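Moderator note: this is an archived Q&A kept for reference. The question asked for a predicted structure of one protein chain; the sequence and the answer are reproduced below.
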Amino acid sequence: MVHAVLVRMVFKALAMAAGCRSLALLLPCLLTLAGCTQVDDSVLRFGLAAAPVTLDPRFATDAASTRINRLLYRRLVEFDDSFQPIPSLAVWRRLTPTHYRFRLNEDGRRFHNGARLTAQDVKATYDSVLDAAQASPHRGSLALIHRIDALDPDTVDFFLKHPDPLFPGRLVIGVLPADGIQGGRGFNREPMGSGPFAFEHWRQEGALRLRRLADGLSVEFIRVPDPTVRVLKLIRGEIHIAQGDLPPEMVAWLRARADVTVVKAAGTNFAYLGFNLEDPVVKNLNLRRAIAHAIDRPTIIQRVMGRSARIASAILPPDHWAGHSTLKPLAFDQTKARQLLAAAGYQSGRGPDITYKTSTDPFRVRLATIIQDQLARIGIRVHIRSYDWGTFYGDVKAGRFQVYSLAWVGIKMPDIFRYAFHSGAIPPKGANRGRLRDAKVDQSIDEAERTTSLEKQANLYRRLQVYLLEKLPYVPLWYEDHVGVMRSSVSRYTLSADGNYDGLIQVRFR
């Protein structure tokens, strides 16, 4: 098989020579360069843009790890379509405002080594997350737990430091066996769960293989970071499914092929522009408002994203139980943007120079270039800086930016407001990367979290979302749809709103 770098170089060379971006012309040329590779036709191969970091759910934070761990482990709680917690491995009762009792169901009670999952395993899992020495990134969201008692093999009690009506929704970490935790098993490379898939091997960094327990089907996750190479591998049958991280032009080209099926689902991944509010330029609210009104999001979604997104006005989608369904997004209005720019102190249509950081993903760079052009039309000069993911993300967490673009993935709980906007959550204590310090925001979050009525809590969060749209620590862009492509040998693969891989549980493969 032609090396990924060579394929990418040839793709760019052909594009320059052809003077066009037509994949219909370029991909067939590249396909002739791809030699045959011997593959196991009994294995369903899933192409990933990024490999998982860990198979230990106590430490997983990246999207690939989280989605694959859902297949390996069972959780106490799941969420319904409005993001309310519902029973999964257990049902629960609130005995007092600070005392919850969970009763384990029968389904999913067998670890892959044959041992029975018990309340002691639940206790050991969450005790280890709460252990400061373990340094789990999920410890903060569970710090309200005072004590965990395993009453019998089927019953576990959680005692809280203070009331929290959202508490059941926090118990979404996959349950591990207590003996493995106590024995120091390396779950990151040797997982042991009770989910619908069992671990087979991870012999090389880019190829992880799981086995579906229902029928023995092997699924291999293969890292193919370049989207062009991922499409080539799909066409040649070297992978059978790819999900997400594909430019719309490639998706359109694949949709026209008889041997490929394209599926799409509305997503909840929230894309935004973030600002460093300690920066002397972008801390100016009128400037941020000018930027917000200068971005033509409807046209970007229609012409660049292939209508695969919904305009966003807040971090929570409108169909979330605490979402704001009537909050209107900021309109594209260049006249208003120029007026706001003048109010920010920039006269004669000449705005500031700002630096926009993004990753090296080709589609993200393309979006940055389009936003650069749109801001130039009102007088703001944007300098794009693209970096590999590790460098870019490190800079964002460290506050080394003026403006950046990212997306929040898989948000289900409104505690995202504390994590992303509270003054007590500035990194490394949280993800308030823009360094927002606003007493009204802090007060609103604190009041919502003290409220025991979900209805009142939802109203408080809705008012907070209105205020955040006024203050613009983020410019909301859109909620990105999820797109999956698969060969004709694959059927019954479905997509979910958060982009998980649960469709593999019922997928059929010939």
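Archived answer notes: The chain has 15 helices and 19 strands.
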